[in-house]
Amino acid sequence: MNANIVIIGAGISGTSIAYHLAAKGIKDIIVIDKDYLTNGATGRCGAGIRQQWATKMNCIMAKKSVEFYEKANQTLGYSHDIEFKQEGYLIVAVTPEEDAQFTKNVELQNYLGIKSRKITKEEAKKIVPHINTDMFISATFCPTDGHINPFKANDAFYQAAKRLGVTFYFHETVQSIQTDHHRIVGVTTDKRTFQTTKVINAAGGFAHEIGLMAGVDIPVYAEKHEILVTEPIEKIQGPMVMSFGKNLYCQQVPQGSFVMGRGTPDALHNHDITSSWEFLDEMAKTVVSFLPIIGELRVIRQWAGSYNMSPDRQPILGSVDECDGFYVACGFSGHGFMFAPITGLLLSEIIMNEPTTIDMAELCMNRFKNQKTIEVEKSVV
Amino acid sequence: MNKKNIIICRCEDVNLEQVHELLDQGYTTIEDIKRLLRIGMGPCQGKTCGLLLQQEISRYLKCKTEEVPLAKVRPLVTGVKLKAIVEGTK
Q1: Distances from the Cα of A254 to the Cαs of A81, A118, A251, A339, in angstroms?
Q2: Residue A246, Cβ neighbours under 10 Å: how many?
Q3: Residues A47-73: pLDDT tens digits?
Q4: Which residue from B minimizes the CA distance to A152?
């Protein structure tokens, strides 16, 4: 079979890229996924949407993505609702270092047009009345951050892409990528072979393995992150509450449940996504110390997913020097869901040889060849 | 009986008509339908609706019930209060 472009992965990066390319009139786009729709990191994520970052690139990508998501139901012609709840992110500083860093972060964010602000503990308590103010020094708040339903958002991109003629193959695994003199010539799955000159690696946790199939060693790895959800109750909390220092994020989703997660220190670099009792213990202790009333809620389910980690915790996007026709959209380091709209737009611009909305110098894989300029994003759980 | 009045998932209040709408759109696995309708995501964790949904899918696809995979089983077995977990770690 012939294909103009083969996209590997139908998570939200892959579906957004497919949609943006198809919307520009590209035909014969194929998306391959090894399991059901939204089986990977997109459907396992914490569903948060935030613009409060410490690096300029992450701020810009997040802001552009929020602007897309605000109109996504209409833009994508979605008959359901992606459930964008914009009630903010409250990020607490737990050390003097964080307090100082957050002042700088807010300056950067405001300079880039993000309406975040530094607030006192008392102001934080007005926004989240059940927060334990003994646990932090100060906080930052951005009212336009929030929550989106990842299943619905991915479904919205998927349906819009399908309507524009994109073909999806689910439950089909890519087994090899064929190259000829460092040029892409085809992709073989467990069911068929596609002749193509362009492959986009949007494989999330498996991005490194897909890269190797094309002879490209992408500096990313998969790392397990765990998460849980409680029984639903009436609405008591608007914003996401987050702490980098204490390793916590927790928000009440529109359906009433609280979704919360934390990273596992020293997690192995592998594809393990099993749930652990250690996470349950640490998560319970952390969340109850910050939000004591949440202790009254029953945990009903826990799960895990893979972050695809890059060296500077910023995504790796675009073409690569090692192989012509091979494009990457990976290394999101836990933030691929909230950046999906700009990911799709940038990849479509690169593939169409259009000027890019954002300068790609700090996003392309080449940036790691000049190590001096690397600025590592610290605002990550 | 009106399909809207046949409740498949009590925890998340999902009816048979909603299930059939998704089946008609091509979402034919329990994992797909769970994610779009929240079937099986409530406090009972699919103990009731999982089997009902499996039967509906098998009828729709005209295959044997056991050929329709059930959703992945996730911990916990039953709801436990977060503060009880905190107490238990002391």
Answers
A1: 12, 26, 10, 21
A2: 18
A3: 999 999 999 999 999 999 999 999 999
A4: B36
Interface test mutation site (partner B, options A15, A36, A226, max chain B beta carbons within 10 A): A36
Fill in the amino acid letter for A115.
K
**A97 has a chain B CB within 8 A of its CB:** no
**Residue B31 to residue A231, Cβ atoms within 8 A:** no
> Distance between CA A5 and CA A182 in Å, rounded?
17
Question: What are the tens digits of pLDDT across the range A70-125?
Answer: 999 999 999 999 999 999 999 999 999 999 999 999 999 999 999 999 999 999 99
| E strand spans, A231-296 | 240-243, 248-252, 258-263
Q: Name the residue of chain B whose CA is nearest to A302's CA.
A: B75
User: A266-288 b/e with 16+ CB inside 10 Å = b?
Assistant: ebeeeeebebeeebbebbbebbb
> Which residues in chain B have their CB less than 8 angstroms from residue A303's CB?
74
Residue A39, chain B, CB below 8 Å: the answer is yes
Strand, coil or helix: A261:
strand
Q: What is the pTM of this model?
A: 0.97
The mean pLDDT value of chain A amounts to 97
**pLDDT tops 80 at residue A371:** no
Residue A43 sits at the chain B interface (C-beta within 8 Å): yes
DSSP reduced 3-state for A210: helix
Q: Which of B79, B83, B86 is nearest residue A300 as measured by Cβ atoms?
A: B79
Dihedrals φ, ψ of A217, to 5°?
Answer: -95, 90
Alpha-carbon distance of B42 to A229, in angstroms, equals 10
Residues A317, A332: Cα–Cα separation, whole Å? 9
Q: Is the torsion defined by CA of A317, A362, A310, A338 positive or negative?
A: negative
Residue with tokens 């034919």: B28
